[in-house]
Design a protein that fits this description.
By secondary structure, this protein is of the alpha/beta class. It has a single domain, classed as P-loop containing nucleotide triphosphate hydrolases (Rossmann fold, 3-Layer(aba) Sandwich), CATH 3.40.50. The chain contains 17 helices and five strands. The protein has a five-stranded parallel β-sheet with strand order 2-3-1-4-5, sandwiched between helices. Helix 6 crosses helix 10 and helix 10 runs parallel beside helix 16. The N and C termini lie far apart (42 Å).
C-alpha cells in the first residue's frame, strides 16, 4: 500500500461526509480512517486553515501523519459501522471484526478496549487509504498539492441544509462543545486570516453584530470558499454537492470512484441501495432517504432565516454551486 496516494474526503460538519466516507469504505480494497485528525492531532503541525503558498513548509508533518494512518486502529477511527468485507483480509476476518466491534461498543468506556485489529495482510499493494475529515477542510489544498497522486474530494451541502442541521443537533444536545457553533469566536478569528475574509475587510466586530443564523452562514461560506479556491487549479481534487449525490447516488458515486481510481463493485451498489432505502432517524445515521434528508431544511428553517442565509452566500463560488 502506498500511503501517499490517499483518497481525501473532506467537508464541513453536517455536510454528508459520513455517508460519503462509508460509501468509499464499502469498496473491498479501501482502508477507511474515520476522522483520525479530530481532537487536534495536527494542531501545531499544520494550521487548521493552512495557506497553500506555504505547502512545502508542511511536507514533513503531512508525510508523517499519512504514514501512521494505516496503523491507526483506534476504535473511534476504525469502528464506524457498518463493517464491510475486504479482499486484503483473511477468511473470517469480517465476522470477527463485527463481533469485536459490537462487544467493544457494548462495554462501558472505562473498561472497553481502545483498539480493534483489522487483520490486514501485509504487502498488499492494492489497498487504497481513505481519510474522512470534518476538521481538515482548510488543509485540503495543502495535502492535494503536496501529494499529486492523492485524490481530494470536497463535499458541500446547501448552506440552509448545513445551518438547519447544526441548529437541530444543538437543540438536541448532540453536538460537541460547550457553546453554540455560532458563538465559537476562536474559529471566526482563524477565518479572519483567510484570503476570502481579508479581501472583504471583515473583523470580529462584524461577526459579533450578526444574528446566529448569519454567523453560521458566514462560517459555511468562508470555510468552503477557501477550500474551493485552494483546489480550483488542481487536477487531483474536485468538489461535489451533497444534494447531487442524494439526487442520483449511483451515477454520482460512480463518477467519484472513477475520479479516485476505484473500480465499481457490487458491494458498493448494494450498500447504496440499503443506505438510501432504509430511513433510520438517528441524527448521525448513514441510512436515510437522501432527498428527504437533503431538503429537510425547507420545513425546518423559517423563510426569514432562509433569506438571511441566502443573502450571505449570494453570488459567491460556494453559493453558485446551488444557483444562489
Amino acid at each position: 500500500m502506498d500511503e501517499l496516494k490517499p483518497i481525501l474526503l473532506f467537508g464541513m460538519p453536517r455536510s454528508g461526509t459520513t455517508w460519503l466516507g462509508k460509501v468509499f469504505d464499502s469498496h473491498p480494497e479501501t482502508l477507511y480512517r474515520h476522522e483520525p485528525d479530530s481532537g487536534g492531532a495536527l494542531d501545531g503541525k499544520i494550521p487548521l486553515l493552512a495557506e497553500t503558498a506555504q505547502a512545502e513548509d508542511f511536507d514533513a508533518a503531512a508525510r508523517a501523519f499519512l504514514a501512521i494512518l494505516p496503523r491507526d486502529d483506534r476504535l473511534r477511527v476504525t469502528g464506524k459501522l457498518p463493517v464491510f468485507p475486504k479482499r486484503y483480509q483473511p477468511p473470517g476476518a469480517t465476522t470477527l471484526r463485527r463481533l469485536l466491534l459490537f462487544a467493544a461498543k457494548g462495554l462501558p468506556p472505562r473498561i472497553r478496549g481502545e483498539r480493534v485489529p483489522e487483520f490486514v495482510r501485509q504487502g498488499d499493494e492494492s489497498i487504497r487509504l481513505v481519510w474522512k475529515s470534518i476538521e481538515s477542510l482548510g488543509r485540503l489544498g495543502v495535502f492535494t498539492r503536496l501529494f499529486p497522486q492523492a485524490r481530494g474530494i470536497q463535499i458541500v451541502r446547501h448552506p440552509c441544509g448545513y445551518v438547519a442541521s447544526v441548529l437541530r443537533g444543538e437543540a438536541k444536545g448532540l453536538l460537541p462543545g460547550s457553546r453554540p457553533t455560532s458563538e465559537d469566536y476562536g474559529i471566526f478569528e482563524m477565518l479572519l486570516q483567510t484570503e476570502p475574509a481579508r479581501r472583504r475587510g471583515l473583523d470580529r466586530g462584524f461577526f459579533e453584530a450578526l444574528e446566529p443564523v448569519e454567523r453560521l452562514a458566514w462560517r459555511w461560506l468562508l470555510f468552503n470558499e477557501k477550500a474551493l479556491e485552494d483546489i480550483e487549479p488542481l487536477q487531483n481534487a474536485r468538489a461535489v454537492t451533497y444534494e447531487s449525490l442524494c439526487e442520483a447516488p449511483v451515477d454520482g458515486y460512480r463518477a467519484l470512484f472513477e475520479f479516485a481510481g476505484l473500480s465499481w463493485e457490487r458491494q458498493t451498489e448494494d450498500f447504496l441501495a440499503e443506505s438510501t432505502h432504509n430511513d433510520r432517524s438517528a441524527y448521525f445515521s448513514v441510512y436515510k432517504n437522501p432527498l428527504e434528508a437533503a431538503m429537510r431544511w425547507q420545513r425546518e428553517l423559517d423563510e426569514r432565516d432562509q433569506q438571511a442565509v441566502m443573502q450571505v452566500v449570494a453570488d459567491t463560488a460556494p453559493g453558485r454551486l446551488f444557483g444562489i
